[in-house]
Amino acid sequence: MIYHFVGIKGSGMSPLAQILHDMKLRVQGSDVEKYFFTQRALEEKGISIFPFDEKNITEEVTVIASNAYADDHIELQRARELEVPVYRYHQFLGEFSKNFTSIAVSGSHGKTGTTGLLAHVFGEDAATSYLIGDGTGMGREDSRFFVFEACEYRRHFLSYEPDYCIMTNIDFDHPDYFKNVDDVFEAFQQFSRQIKKRIIACGDDRLLRKLETEIPVTYYGFEEDNEFRAENLRVGSEGTTFDVTISGRPFETFSISSFGDHNVLNALAVIAAAYHERLPVHVIQRQLVSFKGVQRRFSEKRLDEQIIIDDYAHHPTEIRATIQAAQQKYPKREVVAVFQPHTYTRTEAFLNEFAESLQMADAVYLCDIFGSAREQKGNLTIEDLRRRIPNARFITEESIGQLSQHPTSVLLFMGAGDIQKFEKAYEQIAAAVDER
User: Fold this and answer.
1) Tens digit of pLDDT for each residue in 319-375?
2) Which of 76, 209, 340, 375 would you label with 365, given CA atoms 20 to 30 Å apart?
3) How far apart are CA 105 and CA 334, in angstroms?
4) Taking the model in full, what pTM does it have?
5) Is the sign of the CA dihedral 391, 397, 402, 407 positive or negative?
């Protein structure tokens, strides 16, 4: 049998394919021919990627289909004709996760960073397979734990019944699907009833506090009424150090090589999960400080005297967190935000919030809106956002050279579309200048 992935380059599909391959199963897939960073790991592992073609579907395959493609896709139509098994991504993942002690990570923000850190910590103590939404996956046939992201979009996480679940927050996102924040809350409420052993939830989030569950909930956060609490934060050039108390009693001191309150909260969630599974404290401490991050989450490089940071931030809450982290790490540098809004529906729903969050930066450049095939464009343009931000400038790949006006700054390239093409265009311009 061969597992054939329709849309194998997806941020969840790619790591799932890697996991099955690592477990010595036969894997292949198909996708559009445009390059995505998620395909690099597939290529490194020798997993075949074909252009979409109904000939890819034969009687010996089991199909795992990305949710980005509808049932009328040519390969899915062919699969039905041949009557081969077809699973949607979330359906297959839900069944697969039942083979392990599973730890899901859900929340409107912070899933990927928390999942990556959780896998890094647990994998040091016991055999752990993991699926991270940055396109990273690893499978071990002898796994005790399976760590994975559980996305709320279209309520897909209702296909999962994990043993544990970390819930980072509940916020209004995906306005193309959810009606409002109450609709999002109801999805999380339903999901919470499917978790078997324990929920580890950020107690600083007012909506997470409202969840009604029959299983134990461990709350973590900065506020006094949390069982796991981070105190005495110290920010230095190498990262952040903080003390942890459990039910008001001193526990241990931990350090992370990252910045921003959101990263402390992510670490605190992992500490709580590791504590409940009795991981040794010294292992938790060592793995927290050695974690290098995940792809497209505050990924840094230097370009002459400038610092370039690539980040997936595409919601006002995430933009605030990313800018805060940059300001903490580089307090003496100008922070320049280069932002590409992702989808017209999200941009319109959070127009004022985007403007407010971006104004935390010292300078703002806006790229055109990256639309989705699932939505109508309407009358909204990037100008609607630019007018709300004093001195913000519109920028294209051709005019990206303007960023050289900030020679010692931190350039934050943020977005969930193809913001990386703007970053690459600027790097090429800067390299050409250096050669002259």
Assistant:
1) 998 999 999 999 999 999 999 999 999 999 999 999 999 999 999 999 999 887 666
2) 375
3) 34
4) 0.85
5) positive
